[in-house]
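User: Quick one: structure for sequence A, then sequence B.

Assistant: Sequence A:
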Amino acid sequence: MLHSLDALAGKLSPGSKAGPTSPPASQLDGNANRVHPYHKHGTISNSPMNNNNISSKHNKNNILNASPSSNPEQDQPDPDNIKMFVGQVPHSMDENDLKQLFEEYGRVHSINVLRDKNTGISRGCCFVTFYTRKAALLAQDALHNVKTLRGMHHPIQMKPADSENRNGKCGY
């Protein structure tokens, strides 16, 4: 199917050549999303620190990939890593605040704070992926139903993510 898409792209843009001279096939990122071969791994996407002149309050999600590296294959999380869903997060906490909280338990690969589409305000939950399964489980043991963050009435809810909460709701 990829070859037929390349052929179609060649028809739409005849100046570009598809086939053996094309760049290598796309890779998967830590979230099993296809990444364009020229895309830099380990960057901060849609973040105010990215200096892309886009106001972060209008971004759907801010994603923090914590460890930029010149060799992306070497700096990938373990194959058995766990993406964790975290609820009961104060709306005032951003990716960097959460990174500080979670790094007490192990190296963090990425944090994705879910935000309102229109306002960009945090929905009070996030996804965090640690480099190791052990770090994710250690964080869950230390935080789930144990630690209540400042400004919240209920303790953190942390569990393995079934899939990224597609309907945008962060409640339990």
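Sequence B:
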Amino acid sequence: MNQKGSTAEEWAAQFLQHQGLTLIARNYQCRFGEIDAIARDGTTLIFIEVRWRHRTSSLLIESIDAHKQRCWWLTAQHYLARHGLPAHCRFDVLLLEGSHCHLRHWLQNVEFDSFSRESY
């Protein structure tokens, strides 16, 4: 991961903790891919993708293409199976922009086939 990506993910981790979420893991990797952050909100496990661009881009959410969505889902399933956890979870996306990682959107409980249809 590059320095800028690391900075964005660090900012995201702090933001999520300030929102009351418990951070469980960062940069979880397996053969299917990587999940930027895994957190818990009460009894719900949250798999979080962090997207950051230095300049504003209407295509930020569209950078999570069908291949990335599938890898994200498979990686989450791997994590759940490895830790013997029930499948009660959700997928969130943090969209950050600017040189100081301003939060553009926190998309909660996203559905995979809605990524390319919505403009964020």
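The first helix runs from residue 3 to 18. Residues 114-120 have pLDDT under 50 and may be disordered.

User: Thanks, that's what I needed.
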